[in-house]
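Following up on my earlier message about coenzyme A. Here are the inputs again, as you asked, copied directly from the submission form:
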Amino acid sequence: MVTEVTNLKDIEPILQKYFKGYILSNDPFEKVLIYTKEKIIAVISYSIIYERGEINYIITLPNYRKKGIASKLLEYALNDMKNCENISLEVSKDNKEAINLYSKYGFKIKTDRKKYYDGKDAYLMVR
Ligand SMILES: CC(C)(COP(=O)(O)OP(=O)(O)OC[C@H]1O[C@@H](n2cnc3c(N)ncnc32)[C@H](O)[C@@H]1OP(=O)(O)O)[C@@H](O)C(=O)NCCC(=O)NCCS
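Thanks, got it. Here's what our run produced:
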């Protein structure tokens, strides 16, 4: 089941475990959707900033990967952003799983983002 998170504290333990050093954002444009099956097993965060969409992060818990769950959440988010002129995101250059996922949904590498994540290079992808 896909639902919107109203209290970000519900997903804080997942974010802190899998995105080391993550601090909850206070982005007023942010929306967070979760996929639950008795417990939270995947999360997507995105922001709709007027005509622009941004995907902040997506994660599926390790035991539930490769089952189409991130795709499902991304489809919900993209549908919510359907009126955006463009949607962008940054992804680490070595994250082939995520690059494949985003490419599958029409995102294209636009440029490099040098030292974007803790000194690691990223791509800017745009749809
Ligand atoms: C990236 C991630 C969210 C994918 O979640 P998932 O639920 O396994 O994704 P799906 O099952 O919906 O897969 C969708 C597509 O992603 C790509 N993909 C997913 N896992 C992959 C893997 N191990 N190797 C290569 N491509 C992969 C494929 O294109 C796949 O489509 P396909 O099944 O038709 O080949 C997951 O690997 C994850 O949580 N990674 C850690 C967090 C992260 O790095 N997030 C992205 C940056 S914020």
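One observation from looking it over: Residues 57-60, 65-71, 91, 95-98, 100-101, 104 surround coenzyme A (CB under 6 Å). Hope that helps, and feel free to reply on this thread.
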